[in-house]
Amino acid sequence: MKGQEWYQADEVAQEYDDKRFSQGGQLIDRREKEAVLEAIMPVEDRSILEIACGTGRFTVMLADRGADVVGLDISAAMLQQGRRKTQGANLEGTLEFLRGDAGRLPFPDDHFDTVVAMRFFHLADDPEAFLREMRRVSREQIVFDTFNRFSARSVYNWALPMGSRLYSKSEVSELLAKTNLTLVDVEDDFLAPYGLYRSIPNGLAEPIRTIDTALGGHPVTDHFASVSYWNTRLR
């Protein structure tokens, strides 16, 4: 995995949410959570694993809606931030944070209804191996996102601390075929890159998001979207 040392640093975990999901980054957070919920609904009583759960943005949301969730991450510092979010929380479902390696998941086969991996595959050095392991522990569904090769993200990718692996649609389709997964739905979004949104106040980001949404949703413009949200099922 790219950038493991950087990712596991205490100071990165402490600043992670504020740097990415404050200001205009709130719009990114909202859209990502919407994509996950739309793919999984109904959430209540589902058994869900999130790998690379970070500070628990999705794990806490899903547990609060009645799912039984395990959040797994390699970073102890990130997991500690996630646990702090749940202190005193009255969640409808259950939530456990667990430190572990996404390449060797400590669960038996077919253990979860759904496996979620958001903000993960852009760091994967061997995406097929990770996807196979996710498939092994899932009995129904895998939900994940990818950053797209033909997007604005490629322009500033070199400046990111960990860089990004960028994917074409055909590359992801090939990964699904190799791992015996069936595509249920894919949604493309964010013509403007994430970095732009999180660098400006929400009041400025909202009009940009309105234009972005209006231009998106078409075959031509979707080809240049920064991110794709993939909803897949086991064959």
From TrEMBL:
CDD domains: AdoMet_MTases. GO terms for molecular function: S-adenosylmethionine-dependent methyltransferase activity. Keywords: Methyltransferase, Transferase. Residues 49-139 form the Methyltransferase type domain. GO terms for biological process: methylation. It holds the Pfam family Methyltransf_11. This is SAM-dependent methyltransferase. The lineage of its organism: Archaea, Methanobacteriati, Methanobacteriota, Stenosarchaea group, Halobacteria.
